[in-house]
User: Which sequence fits this backbone?
């Protein structure tokens, strides 16, 4: 399991004038939940919006679970949500070895085969 710190940007003003779409971005991946939760809090510390006495500000920076914060109504006509998302990770050998039936461009010639074997030896 890895922990992805995510940021959603939510357009709060919809209509003909505002053409922007909601979007989600991955800020960073972490191996340990504590580090991911720390990054969520750091994103809040670095965010320059005012949340004092604001009804639309929600957060959870406590407990052993995943942390989050969100401000769904800002003066910039967009909301923001920062949170930890648990992502499963496949281990080594999880993809079976395959015999490829379709060559990549350039692999069909002798020159391409030599190039591929040279590249393979550089990775070792």
Assistant:
């Amino acid at each position: 399991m890895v922990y992805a710190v995510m940021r959603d940007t939510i357009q709060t003003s919809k209509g003909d004038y505002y053409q922007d779409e909601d979007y989600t971005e991955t800020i960073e991946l972490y191996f340990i939940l504590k580090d991911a939760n720390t990054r969520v809090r750091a994103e809040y510390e670095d965010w320059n919006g005012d949340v004092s006495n604001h009804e639309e500000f929600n957060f959870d920076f406590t407990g052993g679970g995943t942390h989050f914060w969100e401000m769904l109504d800002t003066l910039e006509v967009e909301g923001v949500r920062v949170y930890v998302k648990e992502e499963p990770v496949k281990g080594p050998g999880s993809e079976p070895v395959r015999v490829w039936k379709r060559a990549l461009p350039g692999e069909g010639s002798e020159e391409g085969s030599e190039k591929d074997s040279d590249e393979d030896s550089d990775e070792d």
